[in-house]
Amino acid sequence: MVEVARSETTLRRFLAGMPGVDQVGAEARAAALATRSVKAGSKLWAIDTAISMVDLTTLEGADTPGKVAALCGKARRPDPSDTQVPAVAAVCVYPDLVAAARRALAGSSVAVASVATAFPSGRASLAVKLADVRDAVDAGADEVDMVIDRGAFLAGRYGVVLDEVCAVKQACGTAHLKVILETGELATYDNVRRASWIAMLGGADFVKTSTGKVSPAATLPVALVMLEAVRDFARCGGRQVGVKVAGGIRSTKDAIRYLVLVSETAGDAWLDASMFRFGASSLLNDLLMQRSKQRSGAYAGSDDYSLE
Question: One of 142, 178, 244, 286 is an active-site residue; which one?
Fold first, then answer.
């Protein structure tokens, strides 16, 4: 079982002992896997799998209970004309709209996810962050997406980051915890690997690339590094931890590239919504249009699907 003493010195020594990420190799590997094609007979399966992995998300200041209710309706029945289309994995909203999502999703398989810990910046005291988490959980959130303190991480205060993840995990109770690394601000693949391990050591159920508010967001090489981290963590006796990619994933082609990356890097055990997610708002419609094309041979129009 993976176990690391909680002192700053011991944690720093453990992280420093990890092999560095070969940047050229990681980018070349991700690019090569992106060229893999999916056989026609497997494409419908891949599309349905991707739909089932979507965290349908709205994180705007103008969000309202009505908008959330409409989003939840789409999450339950992505294509009202086709009952064979799977429901998505979750709907992700701000904490004050969790109760509205909970009501709209009652009786369905769709989870309610909430961002917390002063999303997206993470600039708040630990007390405020934990209150944010408790508000979301008390309102009915099944999953909590927290952001790490990137300032502390980049300053080398790894123990602070670990302690915060541990505290948030405890505040989550039975809710699953997704830890957002905001990889666009971490600068290097080595930092992405270190941050992934800190999150997993702190009890994360998922490690997540980004908030979607910072560019670059999810990229294939970053996802590769994170998938290697969760694979290695499991092989070292740790739990099987999921990965969520968020930000900039808009097309079915992109989604399938990530599914190939998952299979080839972590393994088929991660090809399930319990282990891999897409944080997206516009991806779902393209998946639905491509699904229609696979089944009927004709593209559906974008107007055939709601924007919510």
Answer: 244
**Predicted confidence (pLDDT) at residue 302 exceeds the cutoff of 60:** no
User: Does any domain span residue 174?
Assistant: yes
Assess if residue 137 is contained within a domain: yes
Q: What is the mean pLDDT of the chain?
A: 94
Place of tokens 């097309």: 251
pLDDT reported for residue 305: 63
How much is the pLDDT for 303? 58
Type of residue at 107: G
Residue 5 DSSP label: -
DSSP-assigned states of every residue in 52-110: HTEEEE---TT--HHHHHHHHHHHH-SSTT-TTSPP-SEEEE-GGGHHHHHHHTTTSSP
Looking at 129, 169, 178, 208, which residue is catalytic?
A: 208
Domain count of the chain?
Answer: 1
Confirm whether 145 is a catalytic residue. Answer: yes
